[in-house]
Amino acid sequence: xxxxxxxxxxxxxxxxxxxxxxxxxxxxxxxxxxxxxxxxxxxxxxxxxxxxxxxxxxxxxxxxxxxxxxxxxxxxxxxxxxxxxxxxxxxxxxxxxxxxxxxxxxxxxxxxxxxxxxxxxxxxxxxxxxxxxxxxxxxxxxxxxxxxxxxxxxxxxxxxxxxxxxxxxxxxxxxxxxxxxxxxxxxxxxxxxxxxxxxxxxxxxxxxxxxxxxxxxxxxxxxxxxxxxxxxxx
Amino acid sequence: xxxxxxxxxxxxxxxxxxxxxxxxxxxxxxxxxxxxxxxxxxxxxxxxxxxxxxxxxxxxxxxxxxxxxxxxxxxxxxxxxxxxxxxxxxxxxxxxxxxxxxxxxxxxxxxxxxxxxxxxxxxxxxxxxxxxxxxxxxxxxxxxxxxxxxxxxxxxxxxxxxxxxxxxxxxxxxxxxxxxxxxxxxxxxxxxxxxxxxxxxxxxxxxxxxxxxxxxxxxxxxxxxxxxxxxxxxxxxxxxxxxxxxxxxxxxxxxxxxxxxxxxxxxxxxxxxxxxxxxxxxxxxxxxxxxxxxxxxxxxxxxxxxxx
Lengths: 234, 308
Prior knowledge:
The complex is a heterodimer of chains A (234) and B (308). Chain A is α/β, with parallel strands linked by helices and 234 residues long. Chain A has helices at residues 41-48, 71-77, 94-101, 111-121, 123-127, 138-150, 168-183, 195-201, 225-233; strands spanning 3-12, 15-25, 30-34, 56-61, 64-65, 79-82, 156-160, 187-191, 204-209, 212-217. In chain A, the strands form two sheets. Chain A has a six-stranded mixed beta sheet with strand order 6-7-8-3-9-10, with helices on both faces. Chain A has a four-stranded antiparallel beta sheet with strand order 2-1-4-5, covered by helices on one side. The N and C termini of chain A lie far apart (36 Å). In chain B, helix 11 (249-269) runs antiparallel to helix 12. Chain B is built from twelve helices and four strands; from the N terminus they run αααααβββααααβααα. With 308 residues, chain B is mainly alpha-helical. Chain B is 72% helix and 4% strand. Chain B has helices spanning 2-14, 16-43, 50-66, 71-94, 102-124, 150-172, 174-184, 186-191, 196-221, 231-244, 249-269, 278-292; strands spanning 129-130, 140-143, 146-149, 224-225. The A-B interface holds A 49, 51, 70-72, 75-76, 80-81, 83, 87, 89, 91-92, 96, 99-105, 148, 152 and B 174, 177-178, 180-181, 184-185, 187-196.
């Protein structure tokens, strides 16, 4: 299913945070969203998930509107968020964190296969399934956070700065995993600070500033990303 | 004089019968603490009206006993009334106010508490009714030379069974996992698809079922059911829950048990001429504990998290 954000408007206490933003993420596509701090990237993800109210526009998943629905209803409709800072349940085990990801599924059909697929992607999650999530390293926690979102079997995966605070080798792992995830037919919307890597990975990357889409880049622009973004935003 | 009084007091407190009675009271208070702590954990709501749920259940038992209905029917009626009231409270008051401040929710539960108390006063009058179907459980049995009332044994066994069942539900089922996750971080739980409404309904129903169990236990010991039935016990348990530590179900439960046990011990060991000092002693102790350990006796000092 395609996620369609149409003319989205979000305001915090009268101050516009997102203005007329439109983008779409189709099955198997990776779409990047980059921009300076406070540009409205995370707010866009929060609005899609129903965590903040919208002032205008719409968010469609296939032919259904997600606007005004609760976060749990949106998760159940097939949109999973890997939140900034991972937001794992540190005192629960790795396995319990994973089982919480199943909450968005309507039935138990195919759970074992999907769990196996996730373990194949992140062997560390299976190896440490009995440990407390809080005992994992930052990179392992990020893998668990993505695994938890994937077992929900989403149509669309949203990621909010998954590379934040991770060692370079783990960042490589996260980015290569996103490619594999998209190849399984899941649409990926990736909010990132690492502009160049995002542009190189994504089918297209939107540059957001002051809540507005300013520029759209393709992998061909990867080598020039920093210069183009700086020139445009200045 | 003082020394001999103290020796008598300690001697009485160590008496097997006093100990078992104190544990029995602790067990009933622990169940109330679980009911209050469970709803607080999931909804961040201190349900002051919990005592009135017990009162309503006790009146249901008195109503059945008045009509000489079989004990089983009376208990079933008690559960039905308490569960229906719990559900109504959750739907009509708690759920719509879920996003409001803790103060708004606390005042709302005060209002519900006094509303229910006033309705009971209108329906049953200040003198109340008598629930006498189970009074035979007050008869003692002799264990190890001490005379223990049957209800004390029933209360301890029932509390243990209820707590074991609850722990199994929380640790072995999906809804239990969802409840635990919601108590830790409700927003993230909802983002994962955990249904906040279902979690709060289930928590309120479990708390209600425990209130019904407590109603049965308390009416055996105090068969006269008035509109203020269980009010003082609820205030004591609320204090116990805070003393134990509200943010964890285990610490809240231990706090409830602790205050019940201490009340039972002081009540059993104080000479009857001095029993009027009991509430002041207990609440003095509560203030002392809170001054020394404001986060709770049984916690490791962890702050509050968001509510559902």
